[in-house]
Task: structure prediction
Amino acid sequence: MLILRSALAAGFVVFGTIVAVRLLAYAPQAGLRIVPGVVLGLAMITLGVHRIALIVRVWRNAGA
Amino acid sequence: MAQKGIAQARAPELRRAVTPWGSFAWGYSDVGADIFIGLGLVLAAAAGASNVAFLFAGIVYVCIGLAYTELAAAYPFAGGGPYFVLRGLGDLVGFIAGWAVLLDFTIDITLFAWSCVDYSSQLLPVLVGSVHPWVHFLVVLGLIVGLCVLNIIGVRESTAFNGVVAALDVLSETAILCFGFLFAFRPELLIHTMQASWPSPYHLMLGTSLAIISFVGLESISQAAQETYRPASIIPRTSVALILTILIFALAYSNLALGMQPWHPIPDGHGHYLQFWQIFPSSPDNQGKAVALLAAQVPYWGALAALYVPVLGAVLLLISSNSGVFGSSRIAYSMSRSDLLPSIFQRVHARFRTPAVSIAAFCGLAAVTLLFAAMPSLFPRAMSIYARFFHGESGLDFLADLYAFGAATSYSFVFLALIALRLIDPFSPRKFKIPINLPVRFRGVQTGIPILGILGFIGIVSILVFTLITHPIGRIAGPSWLMLGVLLYFIYRRHRGLPLLRSQKHDWRKHQIQILRTSGDLELLDQYVANLKAAEDRKKSEA
Result:
């Protein structure tokens, strides 16, 4: 279960990065219009990192 | 409330059996359903700026979520926002906050039952509101009556059921968004839509005020706190995940809706093809089932999603409608026990041991709002009255107006309570604190003013102002509801010989010790007692 949750969390980080980068590529011509999409990407990365941090803590506790 | 709360706590208590996932699922089944309603309404109102409307409301929602997380972890008592406001700002303001939440929960019953039928209509065309208004009305009414009966006889959906539905929905929405962003999303189309279809400032304000309804239901975080073991540790963990998940789904759906190439071209009847979001402004039927329509337009997965998303959406919306019945009756019951509402609301059914009067009263009120919302479609002659007084708003718009008003009002008070409690109760240990605080000394004690709390308050008040400017029904019915409540409050308090403007005496310290003791967070209890002792020693030495 932890492996599945880790994969999902990593997926969020990767997916968020893809969304943010795809929108950032349009920054020169679109200006601030990319902001909602970039925030979406950053929120995905934050959620993924938050979940990974919790999973790592569980793993460490299990090891200890 | 404190004394009675303690008295209740000595009676049989709520069992602390909610796990981290249970805590997440409880919140998700409440807040997660909101996007199913909010998406279509916001796309219809804010057009090419829908994602901006969701972003603004989403940022305010993150602040609200953090405020609820701090308060629920510090005061793990199942009273929700009204309880925090009562503690922070006193009886009268606590009553107003509770009364606004009651409006929200009552509208919640009707709005979610209405949308549940809209989503079902995707598979059962006989339920389409514009084609069969009486069938639609009677089915929604049937759902409200059914939920009322189930709640009176004491049947509740279990946490396990909530957990399964929440898990299925998270997986389903993630799959829809993955397929949508990978195969149908075109950033250049999103930017073109935002440039070509940017709304007027009025419609942007309208869209933003509607976007907040996609983030309503955070009460459940604090409602679940009293049934969560070691809430101070578990709630911050699950809340952060919940807040981010809901924010991601709202932003993802709105960006995808504006920038997706529909899998099946949508003709407009004049030989042109529509963009996906353009199917919403002219069709209230579509607005009520936006997520199901979007899911069906996603490449590959859409063929399957078209079949199950309406069912999953309808189930999630029905759970949310039920949480409206449960929440309104329990808050009325709790306010009645605190001498804020007449004692009739705490009458418990002799056989089923449920607050039957409260349940029946708020379901009855929900049925009345349903009648008002459905009137123009049931009796077309009534349309002229609605056109004259309410800009012709009816149906989903009518309910969303009131929902947005109730949410913005109650959330505003929660921010004030957060700031007030930081000042007047710095002794309660806060295992989770909103980040970014301005250090201040108040009554000789070092504490911090939450900057994000102040920014959130400004944000939610601006959404409240947008609601009052752009929602003709919210502007009239919302403040009328509050004024009626305050009038009833004064009559009741005068009748009972209780202070009208001042609060009754509450022993909050004793109450806090009681709730920390029952929460299982014993180190926090020790810390609280030590903080109180240190403050008293300091006072003595200064004297």
Q: What stands out?
A: The mean pLDDT of chain B is 88. Strands of chain B lie at 266-267, 273-274, 437-442, 445-450. The CA atoms of residues 102 and 253 of chain B lie 29 Å apart. The interface with chain A takes residues 51-52, 54-55, 58, 174, 178, 181, 187-188, 190-191, 194-195, 237, 240-241, 244-245, 247-248, 251-252, 254-255 of chain B (CB under 8 Å).
